[in-house]
Amino acid sequence: MTLLLRNEAETLELGAKLFRSMKQPLRFYLYGDLGSGKTTLVRGFLKAGGYCGAVKSPTFTLVEEYQFPEWRLVHLDLYRLADPKELEWIGIREYFEGQCVSFIEWPDRGDGFLPQPDLSVRLSHHGEGRIAVLEPRGLAGHELVKELS
Ligand SMILES: Nc1ncnc2c1ncn2[C@@H]1O[C@H](COP(=O)(O)OP(=O)(O)O)[C@@H](O)[C@H]1O
Ligand SMILES: [Mg+2]
């Protein structure tokens, strides 16, 4: 599924749609250059989920967590990860336990140490806007894309 996102508001809206269409906690891999809108997408998702605070990019902290009454969101940005083994050292597996929605920026850098995604989103620059390519990686991901279209 390919979508044109003409401005920031449309990236936020795609994030909100992902939230509204989701029937169970899913795992998202986010691909795309610096500044392609990956963190913006997570912001839209969190806002739709009822989070009102600031959404920091986990570029330096590696991970940011958001606790909701019934679920949790884990936002990872692996851009600065030097060695995927570091994920083991920070106890990465525990981050994904329970009712956890996760968004992982630069998943390639954690290769071999991350659980598989349900959906991957590839963002790229397109004129002033962005293109998003959504690719399901399993049943739950397929259902989400069907719901979106
Ligand atoms: N569809 C869009 N069109 C134009 N600008 C966008 C769009 N989506 C996001 N942006 C802008 O791109 C910039 C970088 O976004 P960010 O989400 O931090 O990128 P990334 O996490 O991929 O590095 C932000 O200034 C944001 O407002
Ligand atoms: Mg980012």
The assigned CATH architecture is 3-Layer(aba) Sandwich
| Proportion of beta-strand residues | 25-35%
Poorly predicted runs of 5 or more residues: none
Bound molecules: adenosine-5'-diphosphate, magnesium ion
Tell me about the largest β-sheet: 7 strands, mixed
Element string (H = helix, E = strand) = EHEHEEHHEEEH
Shape: globular
Quick one: CATH class? Alpha Beta
Distance between the termini: 8 Å
Query: In the CATH hierarchy, what is the superfamily?
Result: P-loop containing nucleotide triphosphate hydrolases
Mean of pLDDT: 96
Q: How large is the count of helical segments?
A: 5
Query: Roughly how many Å is the radius of gyration?
Result: 14 Å
Report strand order across the widest sheet: 1-7-6-2-5-4-3
Give the total of domains.
1
Give the number of DSSP strands.
7
- CATH level 3 topology: Rossmann fold
Helix-and-strand structural type: alpha/beta
Secondary structure: helix percent: 25-40%
Structure description:
There is one protein chain. Strands 1-7-6-2-5-4-3 form a seven-stranded mixed beta sheet. The longest helix has 14 residues, at 8-21. It has helices at residues 8-21, 38-48, 85-89, 92-95, 139-148; strands spanning 2-5, 27-31, 63-67, 72-77, 100-105, 119-126, 129-136. It has five helices and seven strands, in the order E-H-E-H-E-E-H-H-E-E-E-H. It has one domain: P-loop containing nucleotide triphosphate hydrolases (Rossmann fold). 30% of the residues lie in helices and 28% in strands. A hairpin with a 2-residue loop joins strand 6 and strand 7 (129-136). The model has no long low-confidence stretch (mean pLDDT 96). By secondary structure, it is α/β, with parallel strands linked by helices. Bound molecules: adenosine-5'-diphosphate (ADP) and magnesium ion. Adenosine-5'-diphosphate binds next to helix 1, helix 2 and strand 7.
